[in-house]
Amino acid sequence: MGYTINTKRLILIIAVLAVALLQASSASPSSSELEAASSLGVVYADGRPPEDVPLYELEKGNEALFISTYDVARMFRATKFWSPGSRKLVLRIDGVRYLFTIDTRVVMVGDEPALMHIPVRYRDGQVMIPLEFISDILSSRLREGIELDWKRLLLTIGSPQYNVNDISFEDDESGSKAVITMTDELLYHVDSDTPGLLRIKIYGGKLNPLKFTINETHGLFNRVRAEQTESDSYLFFDVRRTVRRFKVTMEPVSPESGSLEENRVSSSNASSAVTSSSAEGEGQSESGSKGLRRLVIFLEKGTLPEIPEADFAGRKMVEITEGTGGLRNREIKRVVIDPGHGGIDKCKVSPSGIMEKDVNLAVAFMLADRLHSELGVDVVLTRKTDVLIPLEKRAEMANEAGADLFISIHCNGWFHPEAGGFETFFLAPPRTKDEERLARDENASIKYENPLMKGNDLDEVDFILWDMVQNEYINESSDFAELVQRELSARLEIRNRGVKQAGLKVLKGLKMPAVLVEMAFLSNPEEEKLLMNDNFRENVVEGIVEAIRKFQNRYAASR
Ligand SMILES: [Zn+2]
């Protein structure tokens, strides 16, 4: 009996092995035949996630790239019909019929023939068409625009409204440049705190991250990486360790001059600074064509040898500054704390009846105490009781006090109870719907001051006539806003909504760096509890105190 079982087992094992071998032998030739030669990065404007689509080289000695019609059909939402008998395939895209015949170079577009350089092929059960079909035949017949970048093998389907468009590199004896072209005047923030890394945030930027992902070395630039959030773009430059000094400038692109050197450099930045070309005066912004700008990141060729990891870890790059432009000698001696709203202006009221104006005032008192005792600075409060102080009056008070810093304290709110987190604003024209919404809410105080004013007038006042006075302080304001947000994020366990720019009326007309902090959402039941919690309030206050300490040190160190 034992004998027969063993035989059965043996037969079973042999059978399993045989099946496995058969599968392996049938799989290997086709998989080697259809190995992708490279891939096409595809970015969709309609919100579909980007993807990598395999490309094939099907002919020996010919580097022509083919793409499977399965992928083409999915990418362009086409209907596909395959007729094996006649070896013909039909794709219907945007209402146009494309008829392919295997081993033929002719594509019938409707009733019109179009000719490709290479014939359509059939491999491993798939109809393969040359990539040139997309760029040469399909692109001109689509309703939505497409762009095929052959060098980077990157296809963009649809036209997303990018305003940060391209990157190129230049290299000479003095150093290396990365040149980023933009179709808009955008503010940016440079962070060189991490050795070997330059991080540039572009407020309100929209870019295609695949286009800004560069893995080859260009001079002193090792690699470039990009991220796109719902409101801002981030560029990360991994640079050579020999680089000691860098410079970031925004310059207009003048149509008459082709080279960078002929353009005027429109700004000189402080380290970790933000600038906008509009901040540099009228003449400069008019010299550019239709808001076209170049953001130039220059890395100076250093004579420093490569240094060991341990030494490198503490070495930051320094920004090359020219003259005194951009960098002010700033000592923080007096801070104005502005508890938002007050009196009949309650602003946000939580479902359980907690009022924003009260939370703002309580936190402002705590902040005033700690600023005075820990940093020894003078503190001026724009209100100490539950009264309505007009927004202009608050700015006036701060200017008259000769304050060095202005911090407005607020709570956020939204229709959906799930919305939450903390965010910090500095004054600049709003870029996103969310920023406009916030500006409208926080500016609404004005309607209590002047009941005859209509809602629409507010928009006009706040979004068009934003004050040029604050422009001077954009660099420092956004620098400070980034510090506040970073310190808060180290202490608060709610969502980090980031630094934003907004046309906030309370920040207008101020002759000092100014930010507005939205601590949390009163409309969110969890965060409402936090806003009433002393621990949470302490953490907010500590974060702001720490940010002021760092801000002070940064500017003191640069003198
Ligand atoms: Zn508020």
Structure description:
The chain is α+β, with helices and mostly antiparallel strands and 559 residues long. The protein folds into three domains: 38-157, Copper Amine Oxidase, Chain A, domain 1 (2-Layer Sandwich), CATH 3.30.457; 164-319, Immunoglobulin-like; 334-557, Zn-dependent exopeptidases (Aminopeptidase, 3-Layer(aba) Sandwich). A hairpin with a 4-residue loop joins strand 11 and strand 12 (154-157). Helix 6 (356-375) packs across helix 14 (534-557), helix 8 (433-443) packs across helix 10 (455-464) and helix 12 crosses helix 14. The longest helix is centred in the N-terminal third of the chain and has 32 residues, at 2-33. Bound molecules: zinc ion. The site of zinc ion has 6 residues, from loops.
- Classify the secondary structure makeup into a structural class: alpha+beta
In this structure, how is the largest beta sheet organized? 7 strands, mixed
Low-confidence stretches: 1-5, 24-32, 256-289, 323-327, 450-469
Oligomer: single chain
CATH superfamily of the largest domain: Zn-dependent exopeptidases
CATH class group of the largest domain = Alpha Beta
Count of separate DSSP helical elements: 14
- Shape annotation: elongated
Mean pLDDT equals 79
| CATH architecture classification name of the largest domain | 3-Layer(aba) Sandwich
Strand proportion: 25-35%
Named once each, the bound ligands are: zinc ion
**Helix content class:** 25-40%
